[in-house]
Specification:
Layout (H helix, E strand, L loop, with lengths): L36 E4 L2 E4 L1 E2 L5 E8 L1 E2 L10 E2 L5 E3 L9 E2 L6 E2 L6 E7 L8 E7 L17 H4 L4 E5 L4 H5 L11 H16 L5 E11 L1 H12 L7 E5 L15 H8 L7 H9 L3 H11 L34 E7 L4 H5 L3 H6 L2 H9 L6 H16 L10 H25 L5 E6 L7 H5 L30 H20 L23 E5 L4 E4 L3 H14 L10
Parallel strand pairs: 2-7, 11-12, 11-13, 13-14, 14-15, 15-16, 16-17
Antiparallel strand pairs: 1-2, 3-4, 4-10, 5-6, 8-9, 10-12, 17-18
């Protein structure tokens, strides 16, 4: 009988002489042979060899658990003995799944997935990138179905994805010390703590940790920039999302009463309602949340002594960020509103007053009807001129939607970072639209129409499972460029440390006086201050009526 190949395993334990330092991992023909194992102070994890590259996978590692006595409260550390079989990345927290609109998930979901190139060792620690998924804080999960790591790990970085609680479990914000709010964000912080303490045992460099996200995930990263006191990461990548996007909700303190009533349990006592909901099967609670119309999201928490308070002010009220010592890569897609407005049915589009809807969302003019009408007319004229809103020309509304929801908040955040003395910041604009355009594909929109819509860039960073056969030369060129830029930033704090054949230029940093940017397309182009005319208009608007913003602390 042939002897199976003897492979060095991930027996990385800095405190033990019983384990030798691995030099290089070789994927055997049979991935079940000598499966990789990592020993850490909090447990041992046995993973899998990847079949599509030279890396190992540690899937579904529990970094914390939900408190069974308070499922809406802060996470609690996870402890176990023995070896954890880290082989399953399919867990997701309770939610309504985006594509099929079905209710799915379990509270046993606070897991991370770690993908380790075979070149990682204690002697050769690699930078780590932690990705936080988007999904409006109500849906999404960290598995390879969308966030396949193959394109990124081949650049010699460790890639990590993270689940966190969503919907009512993640974002109840109540006048109670047990559920002050933002549990999903606190899950993320707990994951960051776990990674900071343990990534060295996987061959990671805990002094080079990049926190990255898209949309609501990027908003989460910016929230941590504002409020996280602990130095748990060194760099951030913010893709099309910041905390000024307006996702911060005014808390509905009666949400538990409404949901309990939806489930045929009537009470006027919040604690009684919470005790009832704590025992409700999660799928039933998610269904009740949808049917009741209760809206939850990140919020400014009430302060309670002894509670794990995190966000105690609205980000719009905070003039500087806490994390000033980080490198920043931030940017936009050039047609953020395309898919959202395109899929709006003609009847719905024609009956919706988008200008009034946008202004109501961001501003509260109280009883100042004259001012409200004046602002509506000004915005209407800027975007539509003398034309009426027409379904055969949705471009003005696409610009209106993108400017208020994405571009203006992001550019104002860039200014806030500069005012906070963030010195190393790069700005990008992604404008390529190809067959791997994620959002257009999701909504069955031809990639040949419009620019790069919101989240379209994901197909060029991740090996999305259902896009594996989409390998047009132009698309793969964008994959190579995006992943090289992103991983260069994770390694060096500079996306273009030196010109290369793939990226034959040097990308200048943002300064107090200039906002240079790199346009990412089949041809790379350096520009300065994108969309400056529309952004100047919104800057003047906010200067004039910014004190009427909804999400701004009144103290």
């Amino acid at each position: 009988m042939a002897t199976p190949p003897q492979l060095p395993s991930h027996k990385i334990n800095l405190n033990s002489s019983n384990f030798s330092t691995p030099k290089h991992f070789k994927n055997p023909l049979d991935p079940e042979l000598a499966r990789p194992i990592v020993h850490t102070p909090v447990g041992s994890y046995r993973g899998l060899w990847a079949r599509d590259g030279n890396y190992s996978m540690f899937l579904g590692i529990p970094y914390a658990r939900v408190d069974p006595d308070n499922v809406f409260g802060p996470p609690i550390p996870h402890k176990f003995e023995g070896i954890y079989e880290a082989v399953d990345d399919t867990s997701r927290c309770p939610q309504i799944e985006e594509v099929k609109n079905t209710i799915t998930g379990t509270l046993d979901c606070l897991h991370i997935n770690i993908y380790v190139p075979n070149s990682a060792t204690i002697d050769n620690p690699l930078p780590a990138m932690i990705y936080i998924f988007g999904g409006k804080f109500n849906f999404g999960f960290a598995g390879r179905y969308i966030y396949g790591p193959r394109f990124l790990v081949r650049h010699d970085i460790i890639f990590i994805t993270c689940n966190y609680r969503l919907g009512p479990y993640g974002f109840f914000c109540l006048n109670t010390s047990k559920v002050p709010g933002n549990q999903g964000l606190k899950d993320q912080v707990q994951a960051l703590r776990w990674i900071k303490k343990n990534i060295r045992y996987f061959g990671g460099d805990d002094s080079k940790i990049t926190l990255e996200g898209n949309s609501a995930g990027s908003t989460s990263v910016d929230m941590h920039q504002h409020f996280l006191q602990e130095p748990l990461y060194n760099r951030v990548i913010l893709q099309s999302g910041v905390s000024l996007n307006g996702v911060t909700e005014d808390p509905d303190s009666d949400a538990p009463l409404k949901l309990a009533k939806q489930l045929n349990y009537t009470t006027n006592d919040i604690n009684d309602a919470l005790s009832f909901l704590n025992k409700v099967e999660p799928h039933e609670l998610i269904a009740a949340t949808r049917n009741s119309g209760v809206i939850v999201g990140p919020c400014a928490e009430k302060h309670f002594e002894g509670a794990d308070n995190y966000i105690t002010k609205y980000p719009a009220s905070v003039n500087t960020v806490t994390r000033k010592d980080v490198d920043v890569l931030i940017g936009i897609n050039n047609d953020e509103g395309y898919s959202k407005i395109t899929i709006t049915e003609k009847y719905e589009y024609e009956k919706t007053d988008f200008v009034s809807e946008i202004l109501r969302h961001y501003f509260d003019f109280k009883n100042e009807i004259k001012l409200s009408d004046e602002m509506k007319n000004i915005v209407q004229l800027f975007y539509h001129g003398d034309d009426f809103q027409r379904a055969d020309n949705k471009r003005p509304v696409m610009n209106l939607y993108a400017d208020f929801n994405f571009y203006s908040p992001i550019f104002r955040t860039v200014r806030k970072y500069l005012d906070s003395d963030v010195e190393n910041m790069y700005f990008y604009m992604f404008s390529y639209s190809g067959e791997r355009a994620f959002d257009k594909d999701l909504h069955n929109i031809s990639y040949t129409k419009g620019g790069a819509s919101h989240a379209d860039e994901l197909g060029y960073l991740f090996d999305i499972s259902y896009m594996k056969e989409r390998k047009r030369d132009e698309d793969m060129l964008i994959v190579e460029r995006m992943t090289e830029l992103w991983t260069n930033f994770a390694k060096y704090g500079n996306p273009t440390p030196k010109p290369s054949k793939l990226i034959p230029l040097q990308w200048p940093r943002v300064t107090q006086d200039k906002l240079p940017y790199l346009e990412i397309n089949t041809e790379l182009r350096l520009g300065s201050r994108p969309m400056h005319e529309r952004m100047s208009f919104l800057d003047l608007l906010y200067k004039h009526i910014g004190h009427y913003q909804r999400w701004i602390s009144k103290d």
